[in-house]
Amino acid sequence: MDDLKNEIDWSRYEAVLFDLDGVLTATAKIHSICWKRMFDAFLKRRAAERNESFEPFDADQDYKAYVDGRLRYDGVRFFLASRGIELPEGAVDDPPERETVCGLGNRKDAMVGEILAAEQVDVFEGSIRLVRWLLQQGIRTAVVSASKNCPAVLQAAGIAEMFEQRIDGHVAEALCLPGKPAPDTYLKAAEILGIAPEKAVVVEDAISGVQAGRAGGFGLVIGVDRHGDAERLADHGADIVVKDLGELVPETANPQEF
């Protein structure tokens, strides 16, 4: 599969649709940390109230299986269901201290916001090199992210102007689009760009993301292996898996031009 990265005929594609966290920006770790802090506090308090043993949120396995790449409230629902826990749905404006699906999701989002306000947002340089090269070739770009922090992250990273369209958690909520692994957010991005899915490329680091790309019938699905998941990404829909998107910039390209 790795050899295929050198055989991509980019002239076949008119747009590339990028996930954000873990693909363009090194913010996936922030989300993982905040999910763990939020869920561990909730689970510890619940276990104490019920005189049960405390089983913490696994920042590796639970994160990948239930929340990575998903819309925030979907992540809460999927993880709670894995533990057999039922909570009221609540409302999107529930305060963070309210123990509802939305309240827990908002609690996690508040934690992310605090970290983003205090820390610099780093980008993956190889990813940005690829974006610049694609733009130089006249290939359009968009960001498709489950995060409602997407606009702030793009601005903080200084890369917002590199993407023509953005479908994020706010847009998905407003348009009632189901999150990944459903393909709807990616399909909406392609629709807004006026490009058929088979003429577009999806780039993802999450299992749910490559599943979305495959389900949407996109022309090419590229998996970015940030966590040693190359085989799983391929098994769930990635046509090509790379460690760094910079690998996809043609060797003949002049780096000084982009």
What is the rounded Rg?
19 Å
Count of beta strands: 6
Classify the fold: give the CATH topology of the largest domain.
Rossmann fold
CATH domain class of the largest domain: Alpha Beta
Percent in strands: 5-15%
Give a short account of the largest sheet: 6 strands, parallel
Strand order of the largest sheet: 3-2-1-4-5-6
Low-confidence stretches: none
Mean pLDDT: 93
CATH homologous superfamily placement of the largest domain = HAD superfamily/HAD-like
What is the total number of structural domains?
2
What's the helical proportion of residues? 40-55%
Architecture per CATH nomenclature, i.e. the level-2 architecture of the largest domain: 3-Layer(aba) Sandwich
